[in-house]
TrEMBL record:
Protein family per UniProt: Belongs to the WD repeat cdt2 family.
Molecular-function GO term, any one: protein-macromolecule adaptor activity
Name listed for the protein in its UniProt record: WD_REPEATS_REGION domain-containing protein
Coiled coil (UniProt feature): none
Keywords: Repeat, Ubl conjugation pathway, WD repeat
Signal peptide (from-to): none
KW Manganese (keyword) present: no
Length: 490
C-alpha cells in the first residue's frame, strides 16, 4: 500500500536537546540507534567518545522535570574508545552489542545491575571496529568490519578462551583482505624471502550488511573496490575468500577518490542503498543480474565516513544525514506500483537523478545519524550538539482521500523555541536545471475502473500478427488435381 504523503509532510520535532549523562567523563553523544524490537519503539541507544553507552526513553528524555532514572534507563561505561555503533540483539530485548574504536566488540545484558554488570568480549580486530550487523533470523550470529580491512563472523555460542588474561570469544570466520588495494604490504622485518608471500594492503571496511541469512554485503573506504557480496557458507583458505558478486560503484578518471559511508537495506530485502563521500546515494537491486546501480540520488552533502543512510520500515522512503545541518528524506513511492494506486505503473515519473523531497532542519551542526524506530512511529536525527525526535503531530488532521482536497491544519499548537517542522526540499538552480533536463516522464494516466477515470482512447487497430506461411500449401484443395510440376511453378 502507498503511504500517504501526510505521514511525512507533517512530521514535527518539539525539542532539540542533548541528553545528559551520569558522569563527568561524558561530554556529548556521537552515535545513536533505535531499538530493533517492536515493543521497545521508544528506546534509543546513544554512545559517546569516551566509550559510554546511554539508553533513553525518547518520550521523556527532553523533560528535565522527570527524574533521570525515568529518562535514562541505563548508563554503561562500556569501552576505552569512542562508541562506533550499538545494536540490539534480535529476539533478545535485554541484550545489546557495542563496537568501539578500542578494537573490541562487547555484548551487554541489561537485566544485570549496574554494580554487577559484565560484558561478553569478542576479540580479534586490530583497529577500530566500524560496522556491525546481525543475521536477520539468527540472534547468535553477527558480522563486523573494521579499519584493519577485515570482516569477521561471530557466533555467541562459541566457547570462551583466555586471551591476554581475558575471557573472550574468537571469530568463526575471518576475511583477512576483504577489499584489497593495489599496494603491496611489506613483509615483517626478519621474514625469510622464501616465506614472504605478496599481500595487498586492504582498504578499511566501512559498512557490513546482511542481505539474508547466508549472504553479507561489504563496502570500503575506496569506491573502486565496489560492493562485495559474500556467501558465508563458503569456507575461506588462509583467511582469504572469494566474493560471489561485486556491485560496481560508478567512478571516473580525474575524480577525487571517495568511499562508502553506510549501507541500508529496504523493508523487502530487495534493494540496498549506499551513501558515499562524493555526496551521492546509489541504489542496487540485489535480485537482479545487473551489477550497476539502478538509481542514484543527489542533494545531500557527505564529506566523512560517519554519515548514515536509513530505510523506513513502513514505506519506500529513505533518509540521510547531511553536512548542511539537516537530514533529508527521499520519497521513492513514485517509482513503484501499489494496490491503492490510481495511476498505471508504466507511466510514473522516471528520472536518472533524484533529489530529496523533505528537509528536516533545526540542527546546529552537520547531521550524521538518522534512523526510524521499529514501527516507524519515531524518526531520529542527531548531530554533535543535540538530538531531534520527529513524529506525527499530537493534533492529527485526517488524511485526505484525494491529496488535492484541502484540509486545514489545526491552529492550536504548543510551539516552543526548539519547535521544528518538516519543510519541502528546495533545489538550487543548477540542481533544478539538471532535474528538468533529466526528466523523461509524461503525465500519468488514471487506471481503468478507478474513481473519476475516463475511458481509454481508441489507439487504432493493432498490427496483424502473421502466424501462417506466405506461400500456398501444396495440399490446398485447388491444387489437388494439378501435376507436381504445375504446383511448383505456380
Amino acid at each position: 500500500m502507498r503511504c500517504p504523503s501526510a505521514v511525512f509532510e507533517e512530521l514535527e520535532s518539539r525539542h532539540y536537546t542533548m541528553p545528559v549523562g551520569e558522569t563527568d567523563a561524558h561530554n556529548s553523544w556521537v552515535t545513536a540507534r533505535f531499538s530493533p524490537h517492536q515493543s521497545q519503539e521508544h528506546i534509543l541507544y546513544l554512545g559517546d567518545d569516551p566509550g559510554n553507552i546511554g539508553i533513553f526513553d525518547v518520550r521523556k528524555f527532553h523533560d528535565r522535570s522527570v527524574p533521570i532514572e525515568e529518562r535514562q534507563l541505563h548508563f554503561i561505561p562500556a569501552h576505552d574508545g569512542a562508541i562506533m555503533d550499538i545494536v540490539g540483539v534480535p529476539n533478545k530485548e535485554q541484550q545489546i552489542v557495542s563496537i568501539s574504536g578500542d578494537s573490541t566488540v562487547r555484548c551487554w545484558d541489561l537485566t544485570q545491575s549496574a554494580a554487577d554488570r559484565k560484558s561478553e568480549l569478542f576479540y580479534g580486530h586490530e583497529g577500530s571496529v566500524r560496522s556491525i550487523c546481525f543475521s536477520p533470523d539468527e540472534s547468535n550470529v553477527f558480522a563486523t568490519g573494521g579499519r584493519d580491512g577485515k570482516i569477521k563472523l561471530w557466533d555467541m555460542r562459541v566457547s570462551q578462551i583466555k586471551k591476554k588474561d581475558l575471557d573472550c570469544r574468537l571469530a568463526t570466520t575471518t576475511y583477512e583482505t576483504a577489499h584489497p588495494s593495489s599496494q603491496l604490504e611489506k613483509p615483517a622485518p626478519g621474514t625469510p624471502r622464501s616465506k614472504a608471500k605478496p599481500k595487498y594492503v586492504p582498504w578499511s571496511v566501512t559498512s557490513v550488511l546482511y542481505l539474508d541469512n547466508y549472504h553479507i554485503a561489504t563496502a570500503s573506504s575506496n569506491a573502486e573496490s565496489g560492493i562485495r557480496v559474500w556467501d558465508v557458507r563458503m569456507p575461506t583458505r588462509n583467511g582469504e575468500g572469494r566474493p560471489v558478486r561485486t556491485f560496481r560503484i560508478p567512478t571516473s578518471k580525474g575524480q577525487k577518490t571517495f568511499g562508502v559511508t553506510c549501507m541500508s537495506i529496504d523493508r523487502f530485502g530487495s534493494r540496498i542503498f549506499v551513501s558515499c563521500t562524493n555526496s551521492t546515494i546509489f541504489e542496487y537491486a540485489t535480485l537482479s543480474a545487473s551489477l550497476e546501480p539502478v538509481n542514484n540520488y543527489s542533494g545531500v552533502k557527505i564529506g566523512d565516513f560517519y554519515t548514515q543512510v536509513a530505510c523506513s520500515p513502513v514505506a519506500d522512503v529513505i533518509a540521510c544525514g547531511s553536512e548542511d545541518n539537516r537530514a533529508l528524506m527521499f520519497d521513492l513511492q513514485d517509482q513503484y506500483h501499489y494496490m491503492n494506486d490510481r495511476f498505471l505503473p508504466d507511466e510514473v515519473e522516471k528520472r536518472r537523478t533524484r533529489f530529496p523531497k523533505y528537509s528536516l532542519g533545526g540542527h546546529e551542526k552537520k547531521v550524521l545519524n538518522v534512523g526510524w524506530s521499529a514501527n516507524g512511529k519515531y524518526f531520529m536525527s542527531m548531530d554533535e550538539g543535540g538530538v531531534r525526535i520527529w513524529n506525527e503531530p499530537r493534533h492529527r488532521k485526517a488524511w485526505p482521500l484525494n491529496e488535492d482536497d484541502p484540509i486545514p491544519a489545526p491552529e492550536t499548537r504548543d510551539l516552543g523555541l526548539s519547535y521544528e517542522q518538516v519543510k519541502p526540499f528546495e533545489m538550487t538552480d543548477p540542481d533544478a536545471a539538471m532535474s528538468c533536463m533529466d526528466s523523461i516522464s509524461i503525465s500519468p494516466r488514471q487506471r481503468l475502473g478507478s474513481v473519476g477515470s475516463s475511458p481509454q482512447k481508441n489507439r487504432g487497430a493493432k498490427r496483424r500478427i502473421v502466424l501462417t506461411s506466405p506461400f500456398k500449401t501444396i495440399g490446398s484443395p485447388r491444387l489437388l488435381n494439378r501435376s507436381p510440376m504445375a504446383k511448383i511453378c505456380k
